[in-house]
Write a structure and sequence with these properties.
Helix content: under 10%
Radius of gyration: 19 Å
Order of helices and strands: EEEEEEHEEHEEEEEEEEEH
Structural class: mainly beta
Largest sheet: 8 strands, antiparallel
Number of helices: 3
Strand content: over 45%
Length: 248
Amino acid sequence: MKRILFTFVAALVLAQPLAGGAASTLPNQRIERVELAKGATSTVIKGEVKGDAFVDYVLNAGAGQTLSVTLEPSNRSNYFNVDPPGTDGAMFIGNTSGNVFKGVLPSDGEYGIRVYLMRNAARRNESSRYTLSIAVTGSPLAPVPASNDAVIAGTPFHASAKISCAQSINANIRECEAFVIRRGSDGTATVEVRWPDGSQRRILFVKGNAVSSDAPETVSTERKGDVTTVRLGTLERFEIPDALVRGG
């Protein structure tokens, strides 16, 4: 599945983690929770940002659903990022990829849509009025209940394993701990990989195929025996055995 290429360009508020609560934790941050009306799959929000202020729109969504976001700003320096649950890195960065995002979500939880002005416009205390369109479509892929596939005590995960991983194109292969939430008996699952430094990467498999992740890079795969090698762009690499994804 094609994903938009990630580049490490510093946006005004890129490095600041998304707050999950209802109240702002930063002086220039406003948090608004997005609740879709019963039976609705989309909503349209009109708002304004000025200077270094930014807005985090927080919504709950499930693995396997498709999130679509479009921003129509009055200021060309007005963009948005998409932040996945539980990480500080964005899975989409508007100032390098534009103002339209559509992607299959790899995990369950609260996703953030951060609307902001680029640093140059913020320093001039410019403002922007915008229309933000958000849609969440498709049914979430529910985890297999513990009664059918036992979970690790105190966690949502069905199993764990040590896998081979690499974080850059020239890096040595290392060992990472991987966990799985199985969402079917057909190889549908979310695999969470934990790097030695504690950061995480989540990859969604559907019927044994890796289809999305919480990184902005393109997902590509290669099969060898009972192992799927998943590459995210040209940097990250994971060797994931079928036994972890499917069980048995």
